[in-house]
Amino acid sequence: MIGKVASRLVIFMLFLFLALPLIVLIATSFTEAGYLSFPPEGFTFKWYLEVLRDTSYLDSFAFSFYLALLATAISIVIGVPTAQILARHDFFGKRLIEMFLSSSLLLPQIVFGVALLQFFSYFVAKPQSFWVLTLGHIVLTLPYIIRTCLASFIGLGKSLEEAGQDLGANRIKTFVFITLPLIKPSVIAGGLFAFAISWINVEVTIFLSASNQMALPVKMFNYVQYNVDPMIAAVSALTIYLAFILIVIIDYFVELENIAAN
């Protein structure tokens, strides 16, 4: 009994330690003061309205959303077949390829951003452009798609796919009508992870963005160098709300996948 209470207390304290900075940030975004203060002085939506009135922030939200959506979509198109090949076939260098595809998860993001900038500087006339930035985000998000889908392919086995082919379906029909519906929760969960990673990334984005491109994380990074007021807290709170929504959706689909597996 004492052990259960102690373990729950430790879990609660750990959760509080992780959540407290976010709670402080969100609370600060509602303050009536013109400076960051906690506890907040009064309660107002003024700073959220200021964000909505600032077209530069709205443009940054739109740009980041489009960039993350495009990078995620391309990563899914590339990552799902790649995960299927890695799960279904054994070949020389397979382990090395898996490690290479996961390298962006291991390297510090600042090092990864510099490396991408150096690479594209050698091979691309304009290393800081939208399509180069998109390629950088694809490299960044692709491992999340591959890792989540790879686990599903390994757990799925080959029997259902082979049964579909025995009944006359070709490889494309088997994938579209049998395999894809079965791994759909993993594709959605991996896509949401990829979208979130692309949305919040600063290091790769700041190195590969052109002067006329201002993703939201870069916009916030530049803003806090000259201004520290509750509006930046409101922008940060909006990104937290988005991340929370994504976590709820991911949790739903992961739970759905577990139910389907059982």
TrEMBL record:
SUPFAM superfamilies: MetI-like. It comes from the Bacteria. GO terms for biological process: transmembrane transport. One of its GO terms (cellular component) is plasma membrane. It is a multi-pass membrane protein. The chain crosses the membrane at residues 9-30, 63-87, 99-124, 130-154, 175-200, 231-254. It is found in: Cell inner membrane; Cell membrane. InterPro entries: MetI-like (IPR000515), MetI-like_sf (IPR035906). Residues 61-250 form the ABC transmembrane type-1 domain. Keywords: Cell inner membrane, Cell membrane, Membrane, Transmembrane, Transmembrane helix, Transport. Pfam families: BPD_transp_1. Its main location: membrane. Belongs to the binding-protein-dependent transport system permease family. This is Putative spermidine/putrescine transport system permease protein.
